[in-house]
């Protein structure tokens, strides 16, 4: 069934092979399924740790983990840098798989390290290293997904991957708590099992993901601009389509309030009780999981761009509900559903859209660029939102964010006219054509 | 066209409309590096010598090895957890009996016993004169505890179908539950006003997948007479130097009551901590000092013992036990020079008691409040003491 990784070969070969795993239902390539499996497994591993970490710090080590988030800001910047580096390294010589494996491997090695360190600064350092691995692997992995999917089904491919990824994120805490059920205070057992799971993810990656992308095995890129050099990576921003897309991702990211603020608002404005607070992210994840594939497919059909911008309407609606004075028991569910559909309509879809505007040889760098721009913009938004909250209160801050988001959507639609149809299937296809 | 038809069938067959929109295009076949690239069947081309079957076998072998490692880790942790149910050699003697939180009935200490054995984590009592003597266990398990004026607050774990949740339980003097409140996070601090009317607690919230490493605290105050619960001190109006504090990053923890209306606590915002003086009637608070965490008011109400972040201390052991004179604003260090991470209690107007990490849970130590003397071990395997009677 792994033959289907040759999606770049003649479609006549692709078709039967691609149906290997889910006959008649899925045309997602085996590489995408393998990468999805790797992400699923890895997310189980990392969410196991995340789920027990507070408990471990407070009851296991007897620490007060306050002020722990102070380094987050510094680290966000570093993480963005790592992502760009990972993207660039992967493009050089088409080393997507080795760089991704390095990233997954690094995160896996962090789990036994957690057993060895017992102070907050060192635990923080291990977590930072873990996230370095995540930063390294993200762009090469997304590039591999795009390179092993036909342009017209990329939205679906990313949808399938994100759905599998989110499934892992939901299963992780469950696994961790089941271990703690078996062994009270067995945090070392949780970390050990988490390492084993992460190692399995690396094994699956090494065994079942092709080391060379089909699109890169063809004739060498025609122009210097498409050879994976640093200069070419920087030069990507000179491409109108990608520049337009990145700009939009940044503009919309600047009005995307971070999840923790959304949950905090849910609690403060809609009166979600304390005991449900910890479960709010699960609501978002569940909606993301359910909608990632349908919205990805829909994006393939009506245009990724349209769905990407449309996803921000879902976010805008969520803001609106949070600001409304209606008090209804169903409101928190509606907000979480909208929040989850925002992710389903934007996360993988943006990558699918961006893939169409980046030549295959620079795919990883290009995707890293878009991701980094978006992440940086969201980080700026978090800081600004926090400051607005301090100055004017939560309601005014959210109203401001809603207005900013509406303006961003309008601005994006204008930008889109400049870089017309950047993410539509047709253009994605022609983008590929230009690369060949 | 025949090729494109195949794509349509495999790729977007579930929608006829989509199939039409994704019209057959030459570029699909002309993708860079297609079959022309000379590497059909990447799976075969890439890992020479390892067919699908071989790779599945390698995977199986890896799964088996990793599953063994994981299984052993869980089994060992389970065995270790079981071991904690057996009394440790040389540990304090613990017997089941009656524990009372009544204001009369002899000077005594009630605390969470962490000694291994069947009564681990239960509220136990010892006479104040024999802190290291045999313990009487109540059968009530608490993670954090405090009591005063015949009222107890017990923050405990509740076994759920998958994971533990937490609740605050208000106890009367006979340890009967009078009120139960669900908690949003892991219990860390608990206090009761001297009269037994007001109850406060703090939990850690955070660590979910999206919040990353950002932890926050939530501090609640309950009036046991009226039943009024302030779920979070963030609802209070706090002023610092005359202007209102309204940051999103505010955290409160470690309430200590002066009486039923007034209390002290820690406020953190913008990377600094402040001692605040709060008023439960007006729901207001003002900052009165900086660099104060986990305050504990002396019985005579004149001094506050607290954790101070001292310059030069290593970042993983940043706190020392200090005492602040509220009238003069002067502070001094105690003779305890180790890092402390606890909300101290006053066993009388001159003596502080606090927990330090020990071999079996934490141990209680005591030190004079005036900076003289030296720390002394009070009893092992104990946490969250309250002096009663």
Give the low-pLDDT segments of chain A: 1-25, 216-222, 421-436
Low-confidence stretches of chain B: 1-47, 207-212
**Morphology call of chain A:** globular
Total helices of chain B: the number is: 5
Pfam families (chain A): MFS_1 (PF07690)
Main location (chain A): membrane
Transmembrane segments (chain A): 20-41, 53-71, 112-129, 163-183, 189-209, 245-264, 276-293, 305-322, 342-363, 375-392, 398-415
InterPro entries (chain A): MFS, MFS_dom, MFS_trans_sf
Give a short synopsis of this structure.
The complex is a heterodimer of chains A (436) and B (389). Chain A has 17 helices and no strands.
Question: What are the defining features of this structure?
Answer:
heterodimer; A: 436 residues; mainly alpha; 2 domains; 17 helices; 76% helix; 0% strand; globular; disordered C terminus; B: 389 residues; mainly beta; Neuraminidase; five-stranded mixed β-sheet; 5 helices; Major Facilitator Superfamily protein (chain A); MFS (chain A); MFS_dom (chain A); membrane (chain A); transmembrane helix (chain A)
What can you see in these coordinates?
- The complex is a heterodimer of chains A (436) and B (389).
- Chain A is mainly alpha-helical.
- In chain A, helix 4 (96-116) packs antiparallel against helix 7 and helix 13 packs antiparallel against helix 14.
- Chain A has helices spanning 11-18, 30-60, 70-91, 96-116, 120-147, 154-182, 187-208, 230-235, 240-253, 259-270, 274-277, 280-302, 304-323, 331-355, 363-392, 394-418, 425-435.
- Chain A folds into 2 domains: 2-210, Growth Hormone, Chain: A (Up-down Bundle), CATH 1.20.1250.20; 238-435, MFS general substrate transporter like domains (Growth Hormone, Chain: A).
- The longest helix of chain A is centred in the first third of the chain and has 31 residues, at 30-60.
- Chain A is globular.
- Chain A starts with 10 loop residues before the first helix and ends with a helix.
- With 389 residues, chain B is mainly beta.
- Chain B has one domain (101-388): TolB, C-terminal domain (Neuraminidase).
- Helices cover 15% and strands 42% of the residues of chain B.
- Chain B has 5 helices and 27 strands.
- Chain B has helices spanning 2-11, 16-21, 26-29, 42-46, 52-83, and strands at 94-96, 108-113, 122-127, 135-141, 144-148, 151-159, 164-171, 177-182, 186-192, 198-206, 215-223, 229-230, 237-240, 243-245, 251-257, 262-269, 272-279, 284-290, 293-297, 303-309, 319-325, 331-333, 345-348, 351-357, 362-368, 376-379, 382-388.
- In chain B, the strands form 6 sheets. In chain B, strands 14-13-18-17-16-15 form a 6-stranded mixed β-sheet, with no helix packed on it. A 5-stranded mixed β-sheet of chain B has the order 1-4-3-2-27, with no helix packed on it. In chain B, strands 5-6-7-8 form a 4-stranded antiparallel β-sheet, with no helix packed on it.
- The radius of gyration of chain B is 30 Å and the shape is globular.
- The model of chain B is unreliable at 1-47 and 207-212 (pLDDT under 50).
- At the A-B interface, helix 1, helix 2, helix 3, helix 5 and helix 6 of A face helix 1, helix 2, helix 3, helix 4 and helix 5 of B.
């Amino acid at each position: 069934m792994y033959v289907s990784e040759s999606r770049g070969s003649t479609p006549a070969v692709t078709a039967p092979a691609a149906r290997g795993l889910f006959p008649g239902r899925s045309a997602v390539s085996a590489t995408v399924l393998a990468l999805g499996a790797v992400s699923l497994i890895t997310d189980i591993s990392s969410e196991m740790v995340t789920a027990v970490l507070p408990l471990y710090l407070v009851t296991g080590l007897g620490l007060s983990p306050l002020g722990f988030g102070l380094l987050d800001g510094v680290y966000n910047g570093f993480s963005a840098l790592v992502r760009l580096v990972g993207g660039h390294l992967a493009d050089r010589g088409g080393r997507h798989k080795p760089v991704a494996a390095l990233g997954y491997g690094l995160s896996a090695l962090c789990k036994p390290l957690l057993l060895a360190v017992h102070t907050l600064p060192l635990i923080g350092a291990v977590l930072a290293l873990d996230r370095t691995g995540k930063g390294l692997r993200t762009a090469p992995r997304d590039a591999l997904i795009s390179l092993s999917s036909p342009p017209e089904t990329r939205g679906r491919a990313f949808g399938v991957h994100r759905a599998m990824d989110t499934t892992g994120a939901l299963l992780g805490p469950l696994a961790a708590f089941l271990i703690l059920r078996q062994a009270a205070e067995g945090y070392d057992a949780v970390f050990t099992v988490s390492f084993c799971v992460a190692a399995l993810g690396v094994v699956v990656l090494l065994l079942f993901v092709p080391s060379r992308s089909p699109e890169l095995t063809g004739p060498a890129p025609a122009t210097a601009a498409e050879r994976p050099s640093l200069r070419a990576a920087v030069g990507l921003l000179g491409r109108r389509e990608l520049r337009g897309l990145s700009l939009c991702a940044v503009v919309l990211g600047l009005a995307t309030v971070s999840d923790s603020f959304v949950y905090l608002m849910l609690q403060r404005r809609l009166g979600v009780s304390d005991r449900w607070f910890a479960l709010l992210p699960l609501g978002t994840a569940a909606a993301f999981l359910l909608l990632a594939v349908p919205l990805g497919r829909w994006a393939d059909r009506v245009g990724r761009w349209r769905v990407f911008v449309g996803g921000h309407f879902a976010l805008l609606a969520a803001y609106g509900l949070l600001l409304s004075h209606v008090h209804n028991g169903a409101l928190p569910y509606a907000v979480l559903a909208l929040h989850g559909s925002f992710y389903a309509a934007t996360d993988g879809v943006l990558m699918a859209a961006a893939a169409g505007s980046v030549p295959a040889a620079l795919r990883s760098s290009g995707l890293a660029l878009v991701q980094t721009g978006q992440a940086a913009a969201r980080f700026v938004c978090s800081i600004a939102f926090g400051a607005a909250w301090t100055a004017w209160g939560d309601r005014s801050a959210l109203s401001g964010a809603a207005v900013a988001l509406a303006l961003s959507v309008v601005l994006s639609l204008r930008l889109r006219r400049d870089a017309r149809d950047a993410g539509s299937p047709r253009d994605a296809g022609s983008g590929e054509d230009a690369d060949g | 066209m025949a090729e494109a038809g195949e794509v349509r069938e495999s790729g977007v067959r579930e929608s006829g409309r989509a199939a039409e929109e994704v019209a057959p295009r030459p570029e699909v076949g002309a993708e860079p590096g297609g079959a022309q690239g000379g590497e059909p069947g990447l799976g075969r081309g890439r890992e020479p010598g390892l067919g699908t079957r071989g790779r599945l076998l390698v995977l199986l072998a890896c799964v088996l090895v990793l599953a063994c490692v994981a299984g052993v880790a869980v089994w060992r942790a389970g065995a270790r957890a079981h071991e904690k149910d057996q009394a440790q050699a040389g540990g304090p003697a613990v017997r089941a009996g009656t524990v009372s939180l009544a204001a009369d009935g002899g000077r005594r200490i009630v605390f969470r016993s962490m000694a291994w054995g069947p009564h681990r984590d239960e509220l136990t009592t010892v006479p104040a004169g024999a802190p290291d003597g045999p313990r009487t266990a109540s059968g009530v398990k608490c993670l954090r505890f405090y009591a005063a004026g015949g009222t107890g607050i017990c923050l405990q774990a509740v076994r759920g179908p998958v994971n533990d949740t937490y609740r605050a339980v208000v106890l009367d003097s006979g340890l009967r539950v009078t009120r139960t409140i669900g908690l949003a996070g892991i219990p860390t601090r608990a206090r009761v006003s001297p009269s037994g009317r007001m109850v406060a607690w703090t939990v850690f919230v955070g660590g979910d997948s999206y919040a990353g490493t950002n932890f926050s605290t939530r501090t609640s105050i309950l009036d046991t007479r009226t039943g009024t619960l302030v779920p979070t001190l963030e609802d209070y109006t706090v002023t610092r130097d005359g202007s209102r504090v309204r940051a999103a990053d505010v955290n409160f923890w470690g309430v200590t009551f002066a009486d039923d209306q007034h209390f002290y606590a820690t406020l953190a915002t913008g990377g600094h901590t402040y001692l605040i003086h709060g008023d439960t009637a007006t729901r207001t608070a003002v900052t009165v000092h900086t660099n104060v965490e986990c305050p504990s008011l002396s019985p005579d109400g004149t001094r506050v013992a607290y954790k101070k972040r001292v310059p030069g201390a290593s970042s993983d052991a940043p706190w020392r036990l200090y005492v602040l004179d509220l009238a003069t604003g002067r502070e001094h260090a105690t003779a305890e020079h180790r890092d402390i991470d606890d909300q101290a209690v006053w066993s009388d107007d001159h003596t502080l008691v606090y927990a330090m990490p020990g071999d079996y849970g934490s141990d209680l130590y005591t030190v004079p409040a005036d900076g003289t003397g030296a720390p002394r071990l009070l009893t092992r395997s104990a946490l969250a003491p309250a002096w009663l009677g």
